[in-house]
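User: I'm putting together a small comparison set for a docking exercise, and I want a reference complex before I start. The sequence is below, and the ligand is guanosine-5'-monophosphate. Could you produce the 3D structure with the ligand included, as structure tokens?
Assistant: Of course. I'll restate your input first, then give the structure tokens for the complex.
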Amino acid sequence: MNKIQIADKEFELLLDSDNISKRIRLIGIQLNVDYEKRCPIFIGVLNGSFLFMADLLREIEVPCEVGFIRISSYAGAESSGKINQAFGLPEDLHNRDVIIVEDIVDTGFTLDYILKEVHKQTPASVKVCSLLFKPAALKTEIAELEYVGFEIANDFVVGYGLDYDGLGRNLKAIYREKTVPADLP
Ligand code: 5GP
């Protein structure tokens, strides 16, 4: 299926499920090498990361722990437009190798907040693994962003965990919003 409709928006295929699986297998191989003889803790950011986390973890062969956190955002903060709160962050990250697993890095504000909270516990190391990354949308430097599935353009995407208005998380592929070409002058 190359085109889909979700609520009032039309989307077109960006990454098919085969492409996503192959990339995740490669990230898994890289993580198995980088974390050999260590026992990292993977922390997925809900809701968007649930499918990526499940498929990624099936590729991990080093001993590891798994957890999830949920972020809530409130409108109103001046700098980012958001004030976040992280629920469920493990409290025993001191000296641990932490890997934050995200669906997508857009402005980077969400991750920036999570990373500050994680660093307070003085872990041994902190890296971020994100399936998607929109470099053109980034507004804050994320030095920990080490593993990226796909760099994509600054389009709105759905599928494979990502939603539009609560819908589309169950799609096996990733779709981008179809943009209407601007009228020529
Ligand atoms: P950031 O704080 O980096 O701007 O945004 C991170 C969060 O915004 C992601 O975890 C995701 O929930 C949401 N987000 C950013 N870009 C997109 C997008 O293109 N599609 C969807 N569905 N969510 C997005």
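Residues 48, 102-110, 156-158, 162-164 surround guanosine-5'-monophosphate (CB under 6 Å). Strands lie at 3-6, 9-15, 41-46, 65-74, 83-87, 97-105, 125-133, 145-151, 157-158, 174-177.
User: Thanks, that's exactly what I needed.
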